[in-house]
Amino acid sequence: MATSTDVLFRPFRIKSLDLPNRIVMAPMTRTFAPEGIPGAANAAYYRRRAEGGVGLILSEGTVIDRPASRNHPNIPFFHGDAALAGWKEVIDEVHAAGGKMAPQIWHTGSTVGPDRNWQPDAPVESPSGVVAPDKPRGVAMTEQDIEATIAAFAKAAADAKQLGFDTVELHGAHGYLIDQFFWAGTNTREDGYGGATIAERSRFAVEVVKAVRAAVGPDMPVILRLSQWKQQDYSARLATTPDEMAAWLQPLVDAGADVLHCSQRRFWEPEFPEVDGENGLNFAGWAKKLTGAATISVGSVGLSGEFIAAFGGETSQHSDLDKLVERMERDEFDLIAVGRALISDANWVKKVQAGAGEELKGFSPAALAELV
Asked: Is pLDDT of 331 > 60?
């Protein structure tokens, strides 16, 4: 590698979480948990990434205890004795390899999963009974449903701490349940969980974060994943100006989110180029500037193509890390999440650290067919 990657290998500490480097394994749905129970194959998969030098592993999305919280039958549960025993095996294997890990706690809302014919046993739920603007699906949540869902997020976080996980991430991005409350296109409620502004529509997320913070105590970091784009609309934006972004994010940080995981499809794209130019701050950079919180950036790291195209069968080649190093050297964000490159190669981090660019692989969608 022509560019030194030393900046990626600085230690990072926040509260009780102490990481050896700045590289995070992005949460990636794999659907390899039959009947919702992670097993030995899942534990070995994550252990290999810990052995490969990942600083912090974020699990695939794992769902809370609600009747229709997942949109595929092989998405893992994060509730029930069998599933939690499986996750205990996962975190023990990761720790045995010297790694650190968080479960990504999730509710898929009214979204449709990869198997479009599969339906959960109960009606899907969302803020307003729609999956996208003017597209009905499932039922609108009652206030009692909302209270139970907040409690389920908190219980999952408490269980994560009890099992020995190092931190916890809440999935509030990509058009799933928490994000459906944020988005005016899917939240048309007229009670206290709706509203004309992003700040008003953030109430549900704020209450989830507060409940999770209470459940895990003051020292365990809480990560919150967020996005502007939705799987329902890649061009959607929750915040169109820095002021609007501050009104969205600051209450979440005040509620107890320590780290904002700012998802975008290409990490090098500026969030508000009309403000600071074509080389301006990305989403994670603006989130850090506006709130002072630590941030994780993500989006097509080390690969030539972005991840949405991968699900359409597109192969990506390895690409250099010059843009990433440049942004991290100016402390634009604190951590960088890597996704598909770590599916293809569990030792990607060690190879980057060794400067072995010639050994880095591209990504083929065929890699999604097995858990290796």
From this structure: yes
Phi (first) and psi of residue 19, to 5 degrees: -110, 145
* Cα atoms in the Cβ-side hemisphere of radius 13 Å centred on 354: 12
Please give the pLDDT value at position 364.
83
Which of these is catalytic: 45, 46, 176, 193? 176
Quote the tokens at residue 65. 């205890």
215 in Cβ contact with 259 (< 8 Å): no
With contact defined as beta carbons under 8 Å apart, do 231 and 280 qualify?
A: no
pLDDT at 305 over 70: no
- Does the annotation count 234 as an active-site position? no
The mean pLDDT value for 133-162 works out to 98
Q: Is the dihedral of CA 111, 116, 117, 120 positive or negative?
A: negative
Partner residues linked to 101 by β-bridges:
57
Helix (H, G, I), strand (E, B) or coil at 97: coil
Do residues 299 and 338 touch, judged by C-beta distance below 8 A? no
Is pTM, for the whole model, over 0.70? yes
317 close to 274: Cβ distance less than 8 angstroms: no
Asked if 295 and 316 count as a contact pair (C-beta separation under 8 A), the reply is no
Residue 318 contacts residue 278 (beta carbons within 8 Å): no
Half-sphere CA count of 223, side-chain side, radius 13 A: 35
By the 10 Å C-beta count (0-12 exposed, 13-18 middle, 19+ buried), 294 is classed as: buried
- Take residue 180 and report the two structure tokens written for it: 């459906």
